[in-house]
Amino acid sequence: MTFPETRLRLRLNGSLVAGASLRILVLAVGLVACACSSSDLPAATTATPSATSQASPSPSPTPTGAEVPVDKQVLPPATDPPVAQLCRTAITTTADQNATPLFCHNGAVNVLAWSFYGAVSDSILSLGLNPNNGQPQSAMCDDIAHNGAKRSQEVSAYRLAAAYYGWTFTFDPTKVTCS
Fold first, then answer.
1. Rounded to whole angstroms, how far apart are CA atoms 139 and 73?
2. Handedness of CA 114, 118, 121, 122 (dihedral sign)
3. Which of 15, 57, 65, 179 is the most exposed place for a label (fewest CB within 10 A)?
4. pTM to 2 decimals?
5. Which residues lie closer than 8 Å to 111 by C-beta, 6 or more apart?
6. How many CB atoms lie within 10 A of CB 83?
7. Distance between CA 158 and CA 127 in Å, rounded?
8. What are the boundaries of each domain within the chain?
9. Is the dihedral angle over the CA atoms 140, 145, 147, 151 positive or is it negative?
10. How does pLDDT run across 102-147, given as a tens digit for each residue?
């Protein structure tokens, strides 16, 4: 026979990490749901006036186009602080399982897009400030082979990492071949 106090203590000890993961998952799902539902409204309102679509170079995922600056901080899975500025704006997911926008209008890295790619693009996003030639390509192939990233997702993750770390590699991420 077990006492309720014992079961409660075991459940709490075993579920702290799961509880935190669940809260993060619920938050992420909520953000995606909000982004998906709010993106339908601006599309209907901005499709009519052509002056509005010309004034904004990329469609805004929220009715107000809210982009919030974020203090510089290390974004997991990175272990180095960013070279780039950070911002937060709602993302939408595309049919090919990508997120948009990757960057805010001022060029800052969108922390919500970074978080979106963190699960499947761990290798490229954690590569660091000073990788050698060839390391980004190897990291991209590792993510595709072992982390479940699709090629199109990995191209977007590379672009985020290049901006975050300030990389100046000259290769085309869409032409990376993995053996």
1. 23
2. positive
3. 179
4. 0.65
5. 70, 75, 86, 87, 88
6. 13
7. 10
8. 4-175
9. positive
10. 999 999 999 999 999 998 999 999 999 999 999 999 999 999 999 9
